[in-house]
Design brief:
Length: about 190
């Protein structure tokens, strides 16, 4: 019987691992966690990259030369071309909108209007015979300054969206941005 008690008091190595094995396992878990955090952090950085980029805001874009806009007061339509960045995709030299540029007689200053109708976003056309901007979608009408012509159409919620522009080195630069349509005030799209 003495042998039986002695045999039961001796523990096998499988039942209780030595401290060295515990420390090795703990160290492996810590090192594995540290090594695993770097790919995880890199993946999170790539996933949230579009959020950390600067928001839409106005972009100063060269539209044309000053010679392309005669000082006769007639609006002229120009495409707005820039690199389009959408989340992870970049499209070089894509058309992102259009502007009307107007120069008054004898003036070097230029007025810029976004060519998108503030009602539903259709491209507004200029009718020289009526000296009006007219939207083909819902008969919105604007004068040559971009002001609503409520006597012709009650549809547009606001005037055409004016844009800041400057003439520098014989080029016309516009702070271009698009705005939400269908609302009474200008709200820039991101």
């Amino acid at each position: 019987m003495a042998e039986t008690s002695h045999a039961s008091s001796a523990k096998s190595p499988a039942q209780s691992p030595p401290r060295r094995n515990f420390l090795t396992a703990a160290l492996a878990v810590v090192i594995g966690g540290i090594v695993g955090i770097f790919p995880f952090a890199a993946g999170l950085g790539a996933f949230f990259d579009p959020l950390r980029r600067s928001a839409g805001g106005a972009k100063k874009i060269r539209i044309t030369s000053i010679e392309a806009v005669p000082d006769d007061g007639v609006p002229r339509l120009f495409p707005v071309v820039a690199d389009l960045v959408d989340a992870w995709t970049t499209t070089p030299q894509a058309r992102i909108g259009a502007v009307y540029l107007v120069r008054k007689k004898g003036s070097s200053t230029v007025q810029a209007l976004n060519a998108e109708c503030p009602h539903l976003g259709c491209l507004v056309g200029y009718t020289a015979s009526k000296d009006l901007f007219q939207c083909p979608c819902h008969t919105s009408a604007f004068d040559v300054e971009g002001k609503r012509r409520l006597d012709i159409s009650k549809v547009p919620p606001r005037d055409m969206d004016g844009l800041t522009c400057e003439v520098k080195d014989d080029s016309i630069w516009v702070d271009f941005q698009n705005f939400y349509t269908g609302i009474e005030h200008q709200k820039p799209k991101a």
